[in-house]
Design goal:
This protein has 117 residues and is mainly beta. It is 9% helix and 37% strand.
């Protein structure tokens, strides 16, 4: 399996970044790696943010993912270029997002480098 690396300095606490095909999130000093495509409309999750609960938030429509399980814990707030309420649709996306989890990988520190294995 290929390893992907990035500088630990490029990922301060509370930030989100990328190492190869993986999105990295520094949640309170613990770095997690998940696949980089949102299960809703394939947005690049490495452009997302972490919320106050430590969930990864999609930059397009706000879907939230648990970094430990990869499950979508809150569905999207919009569709295509629309941002707003989508009754029924949001619950449908959340339901399949629980089944179609983000893939996860282990991250280790090697000096000043983060290595996704």
């Amino acid at each position: 399996m290929a390893q992907h690396r990035t500088s630990a300095a490029s990922l301060p606490e509370g930030s989100v970044g990328r190492a190869g095909p993986w999105t990295l999130a520094n949640r309170r000093g613990e770095v997690k790696a998940v696949s980089s495509r949102c299960r809703h409309q394939l947005a690049d999750l490495s452009k997302g943010t972490l919320d106050k609960d430590g969930c990864l938030v999609c930059p397009w429509h706000g879907s939230k993912y648990d970094l430990d399980s990869g499950k979508m814990v809150e569905g999207p707030k919009g569709f295509l270029f629309y941002v707003g309420k989508t009754p029924g649709y949001t619950q449908l996306v959340k339901a399949y997002g629980v089944v179609l989890k983000l893939r996860r990988r282990t991250v280790r520190r090697d000096g000043d480098t983060l290595v996704v294995e």
